[in-house]
Amino acid sequence: MNKKTTIITSKKNWLEYTAITQLDALANLDNVIQVVGLPDLHAGKTPIGLALITENKIYPHIIGNDIGCGMSLYSTDIEKRKLKLDRWVMRLNHIRKLADIETINPYDEPSPIYDLGTIGSGNHFAEFQLINDIADTQEFEALNIDESMVHMLIHSGSRGYGHSIISEFREIGYEGDGASAYIEKHDDALKWAKRNRDIVANKLVDYLGYSPDLRKIIDCSHNFLEQREEVFIHRKGSVSTENGPVVIPGSRGSLTYIVKPTENTKHTAFSISHGAGRKWARSLCKSRIRDKYDRDTIRQNKYKGRAVCHDTDLLFEEAPEAYKNIDTVVNCLLDYNLIKVIATLKPVLTYKG
């Protein structure tokens, strides 16, 4: 293991050897100061679940093509006692994808996202949630969350816009003017990724017949570059600890955690996990669990929640079993004194497409 590399994990937390070797290889890049693998670390084109600090040089390929991808948690004005799950499922089954609902750009400037108001495929989702448990009453009240209401979590990014940017910046690393040019476009994609999540949340609630006047509780990006003093922090599947409470979701069949980072995160590049992290490759999922589910049961979870998605293969690829145990990931962060748990939310209705 390179001396610049740190991995936050435990004996109970499974880490793929490929992800570890990918992570360690990044420490050999020029100008790298520190590389951190978090408990949700898993392999990809570059490893996911990491933070990397450099000096005077940036690496766009580490951020990847979905610049600004992140999680936004909203409070709706829908009381949980008035939740009509069957009607919502029926209504959402009338559309194949979010692009079927008209998107109106409420901003004065034109959007660079050609598919504005959509979440994308893969692990992206829109999910209605209910408060499951409150662990820290004081911090929970500080967020002004009403546990009697339905909440919504959106996971999406800058869509095709981020892909167009990374297609332009194909070199391994950039300094000087090249770095500045990337950062300018990166920051615009970051802004529009956040706006995209707002639009998705509002249009889904409106489509179901409720007031789209949502209140954003938390917004945390996990694919982005941050300049901090004299260095750059690259985050790929990790969240900054310096902007208040964050959400860490598991899968559509597990809880989402609201946590508050501690002041003990310098050794993790001021970063914590963004989610549970994949355990299985997509190509393996269906063969491993096809005897456990059919087309109907794959759309249900242990909390009596439902999933709406017209792509059954995608539902198998994104099954809860394909992800690490979110409780194990969170416990790793607790063991290292990186977070305090504020509350958990349970999934009611997950929309993908």
Describe the structure.
With about 350 residues, this protein is of the alpha+beta class. It contains nine helices and 15 strands. Strands 4, 5, 6, 7, 11, 12, 14 and 15 form an eight-stranded mixed sheet that branches. It has a five-stranded mixed sheet with strand order 1-2-3-9-8, sandwiched between helices. Strands 10-13 form a two-stranded antiparallel ribbon.
Short description:
With 353 residues, this protein is α+β, with helices and mostly antiparallel strands.
Describe the secondary-structure layout.
Blueprint: E1 5-7, H1 17-26, E2 32-42, E3 48-55, H2 60-63, E4 70-79, H3 85-92, E5 125-134, H4 137-142, E6 149-156, H5 160-168, H6 176-207, E7 215-221, E8 223-228, E9 231-236, E10 238-240, E11 246-249, E12 256-261, E13 271-273, H7 282-289, E14 306-308, H8 312-317, H9 326-335, E15 339-351
Parallel strand pairs: 1-2, 14-15
Antiparallel strand pairs: 2-3, 3-9, 4-6, 4-7, 5-6, 5-15, 8-9, 10-13, 11-12, 12-15
